[in-house]
Structure formats: structure tokens, C-alpha cells
UniProtKB/TrEMBL annotation:
Subcellular location: Mitochondrion
Protein name in the entry: Citrate synthase
Family per similarity comment: Belongs to the citrate synthase family.
Signal peptide: none
GO molecular function terms attached to this record: acyltransferase activity, acyl groups converted into alkyl on transfer
InterPro entries membership: Citrate_synth-like_lrg_a-sub, Citrate_synth-like_sm_a-sub, Citrate_synthase, Citrate_synthase_AS, Citrate_synthase_euk, Citrate_synthase_sf
Main localisation: mitochondrion
Residues forming the catalytic site: 273, 319, 376
Provenance organism: Piloderma croceum (strain F 1598)
């Protein structure tokens, strides 16, 4: 049974060769146009990044190395006693393009558990932060501080060769993924349950099993399973989303994986990106409060219009790329549908009813290119139902997950020797001049 590093060692040379040939033989091939609207429109639709691990089709949603979410659910190993795919099996798939065996997943789980404890100074640092500091800000601080022990940075200082970049990046990336649950759970404990003891990491548990236990929900099998699914499917969403792109950009300066991912976390912390799952719950609870017990489609419709007329977006709806309901939303809905307890929960019923009404309202409103729910429309409400009600914390869980894709990107960028990312910019005047020539 090969380890993750050995598997990568086998795969990397052929990919390096493929890229070298592509550059040499097709470097001048034109693959698209750049329009003024791309430049002034946040580069939407501009295909200008290299990313192998996942592709986001506007209509059918995400595929991880060609596998849809249902394919992954059917083929990626689960934790002992569970059914949902584990975070480490998703990480293996993203990094290698291969479905790991159960034995390989267990070896990786153990490695992550063995590396999961935080250095004492990081514990102290997190404990010193004010409770009122947003949990996402705290997460970024904890992750950035781990670069104290970065193997990549230490090797760079000693003058490592380019061909060695990826192995040191991989060591840091595995260490980072391993330590994220302990940082994230410590923040949760400090901010919301200061009297709770944090349990020791169990070497026989998977990454998310340990995370759930450290959050204080280890006894809740269903929530732990939900977290496994949540963390696996939020892991990667191709290369251009704000968090993945940030990790890639910062990593391209040869910043080590810890500080590259800390930067990505602050992109995730924006309300148009990962913070939306916090916003959805705030919005759905305000809706619940206003509507009261007698929830009807008409009342939900009215509430949506009220939000739109006050100039706000409907959180959990729309997407920069997707043009259909998000399959991640559907996977989480299916998880709810399979459990009568969740199905009868008032907040989950309200989310479902909202998703049946909102697309028509948004179509009539006529602005958003995608009137359908994205994953954030439902993700937080299930946590809320299970008693994890502190919604300012929700994006931290997304932050534990998104590392899977970002570290994959960092390892491969170093393995392929990708250069510093440095696009060229235009001024408005220069664009105007170009447009006049047309
Ligand atoms: N409610 C109301 N208006 C919306 C909307 C929504 N959910 N989604 C888009 N619009 C509006 C935009 O604000 C924009 O209006 P203006 O022309 O006045 O600026 C117009 O529709 C066109 O936007 P778009 O091209 O459809 O969407 P973008 O690619 O610019 O933005 C996104 C995508 C996700 C930021 C946007 O749909 C949004 O704000 N959604 C709500 C927040 C959200 O759910 N974010 C989570 C996304 C998933 C993730 O990254 O985690």
C-alpha cells in the first residue's frame, strides 16, 4: 500500500512532462478573447488559470477529477461506522486524481491525527484573543502562526532546489490540514463554551471525527456524519473562486502554505463568499421571526421581496459561475431528506420552502444570472438544528474544508514549477482608447 507522498511521487513526473510539452508545442495557441466586460467585471468568464483537481460546469456543477458528488459518495471511503466520505479520502482524490483504498485512507487519518496537536505558543496565542474577535479572524491568525515551523520556509532559507519545492510544500500542507481542527475547535471553545475541556486527539479517528469530538459533538453521530459530508464537498470548487485563487496567488510568491492559506481564509471571510452561510441563517431566522408559526409560500415570497426592495441580496442564492441549483446544495438536502428528524425541523422546512419560492422571485426581480440556491442556502441550517447554533462560527467550518482544495493547488503549483502570478492591468483611459480604435 503506497502512502500519499509515494503516490504523488509516481504521478508528478508525467504531469511535469505533459506541461513542459504543452508549453513548448502550444504556447502560442489562442484559447479565447479578453473583452472589456471581463476586465471591468471581476474577470468573470475569463479562462486564465491552470487547475486540474476540479472543474465547475455552469449547468451540472462541480466534478472532482471527473467525479460528481454522487460518484464520490459512492466510491470514496467513509469512516468506520459511518457512510459519508471522509475529508481525507477527498484530499487524496484531489491531490492524486485517484480513489484511495480504505487502507490508504486509514493510514492518512492516523498521520493527520498524529500531527494534529498545536504547538504551545499557538494555543496561548489563540487563548489570548478577545472573544469578540470574529472566529474567522482568529482562524487566520492561528493558521498564519503555524508558519513558525514551516518545512518549506526552512528549506528555502537553506537554499533548496526547485525540484524539492513540492515535497516540503506537501509536508506543510499535511501538517496544516492536520492542525486545522484543533485550531478551529479551540476558537469555538474559547468564544462560546469557555468552561469546556478540549478532549485529546484520538489517533483512531478520522479528521472530522476528531473535529466533531473537539467541538463537543462527538456523541452526535448524525452531526459528525453531516460534518464529514459538508467538509468533503466544500473542499474544492475549481481554481478561480476567491479563496482558492488567493491561496494560489499568495503561494506563487513562494510564501509557505500556512501564510498562503491564512490569506485564503480572509477571502473566504467575505459575505459574498464563505460568510454567506452565516448570513443565510441570520436571514432565515429573521424571516421565521417575522412570519411566525403559520409559514406559507406567500409569506416567504413577501419576505424575499422585502429583502430585495431594501437593496440587499438574498443570501444563499446566485453564483459567479453556476447557472443551475448547486449539486452541493442538493447533496445536503438529500442528507436532510433521509432523516425524519431533520425533515420535520422548522428551520430546515423553511429553508426548503424558501428554495421552492426564491428562484421565481429572483427571476421576476430580473438581476441575478443564477436565481437558484447555492450550497450556503442550506449548510448552516442543519448545524443550527443539531444545536450548533453559533452562526458566526459557520464559516470556520468552511475554512477547515476549503484547505483540501487550496493545499492541493499549492502542492501541484510547486511540483509543476508554476511562476509568480502577475496579470497586467489597464487604466480606464487606456481601455477607452482601445475601444475607440475598434
Ligand atoms: N440576490 C439579489 N441580487 C442578486 C443575487 C441575490 N442572491 N445574486 C446576484 N444578484 C445581483 C447582483 O448583486 C448584481 O446586481 P448589480 O447589477 O446591481 O450589481 C446582479 O444580480 C448580477 O449579478 P450576477 O452576475 O448574477 O452575480 P455575480 O457573479 O456578480 O455574484 C454572487 C455572485 C454569489 C456574489 C451573488 O450571486 C450574491 O451576492 N449572492 C448572495 C451571496 C451568496 O450567496 N454568496 C455565496 C456564494 C457561494 C460561495 O462562494 O460560497
Amino acid at each position: 500500500t503506497k502512502t500519499l507522498k509515494e503516490t504523488l511521487q509516481d504521478i508528478i513526473p508525467a504531469k511535469q512532462e505533459q506541461l513542459k510539452r504543452l508549453k513548448a508545442e502550444h504556447g502560442q495557441t489562442v484559447v479565447g478573447d479578453v473583452k472589456v466586460e471581463n476586465i471591468v467585471g471581476g474577470m468573470r468568464g475569463l479562462k486564465a488559470m491552470l487547475w486540474d483537481a476540479s472543474v465547475l460546469d455552469p449547468d451540472e456543477g462541480i466534478r472532482f477529477h471527473g467525479l460528481t458528488i454522487p460518484d464520490c459518495q459512492a466510491s470514496l471511503p467513509s469512516a468506520p461506522g459511518g457512510k459519508e466520505m471522509t475529508a481525507e479520502s477527498m484530499l487524496w482524490l484531489l491531490l492524486t486524481g485517484q480513489v484511495p483504498s480504505e487502507a490508504q485512507t486509514r493510514v492518512l487519518s492516523r498521520e493527520l491525527a498524529e500531527k494534529g496537536d498545536l504547538p504551545p505558543f499557538v494555543r496561548k496565542l489563540i487563548d489570548s484573543l478577545p472573544k469578540s474577535l470574529h472566529p474567522m479572524t482568529q482562524l487566520g491568525i492561528g493558521v498564519a502562526a503555524l508558519n513558525h515551523d514551516s518545512a518549506f520556509q526552512a528549506a528555502y532559507e537553506k537554499g533548496m532546489k526547485k525540484t524539492e519545492y513540492w515535497t516540503h510544500a506537501l509536508d506543510d500542507c499535511i501538517d496544516l490540514v492536520a492542525k486545522l481542527p484543533a485550531i478551529a475547535a479551540r476558537i469555538y471553545r474559547n468564544v462560546y463554551h469557555p468552561n469546556n475541556q478540549l478532549p485529546a486527539i484520538n489517533k483512531d479517528l478520522d479528521l472530522v471525527g476528531n473535529y466533531s469530538a473537539m467541538l463537543g459533538y462527538g456523541g452526535n453521530h448524525n452531526l459528525t456524519e453531516y460534518l464529514r459530508l459538508y467538509i468533503a464537498i466544500h473542499g474544492d470548487h475549481e481554481g478561480g473562486n476567491a479563496s482558492a485563487h488567493t491561496a494560489h496567488l499568495v503561494g506563487s510568491t513562494l510564501s509557505d502554505p500556512y501564510i498562503s492559506y491564512a490569506a485564503a481564509l480572509y477571502a473566504l471571510a467575505g459575505p459574498l463568499h464563505g460568510l454567506a452561510n452565516q448570513e443565510v441563517l441570520r436571514w432565515q431566522l429573521a424571516m421565521q421571526k417575522e412570519i411566525g408559526d403559520n409559514v406559507t409560500y406567500d409569506k416567504i415570497r413577501e419576505y424575499i421581496w422585502k429583502t430585495l426592495k431594501s437593496g440587499q441580496v438574498i443570501p444563499g442564492y446566485g453564483h459567479g459561475v453556476l447557472r443551475n441549483p448547486d449539486p452541493r446544495f442538493m447533496a445536503l438536502q438529500q442528507f436532510c431528506d433521509a432523516q425524519p428528524e431533520l425533515n420535520s425541523s422548522p428551520i430546515i422546512q423553511m429553508v426548503k420552502k424558501t428554495s421552492e419560492v426564491a428562484p421565481d422571485v429572483l427571476k421576476e426581480h430580473g438581476k441575478t444570472k443564477n436565481p437558484y440556491p447555492n450550497v450556503d442556502a442550506t449548510s448552516g441550517c442543519v448545524l443550527y438544528h443539531y444545536g450548533l447554533t453559533e452562526f458566526k462560527y459557520y464559516t470556520v467550518i468552511f475554512g477547515v474544508s476549503r484547505a483540501l482544495g487550496c493545499v492541493t493547488q499549492l502542492v501541484w503549483a510547486r511540483a509543476l514549477g508554476l511562476p509568480l502570478e502577475r496579470p497586467k492591468s489597464y487604466s480606464i483611459d487606456a481601455l477607452q482608447k482601445l475601444a475607440k480604435k475598434d
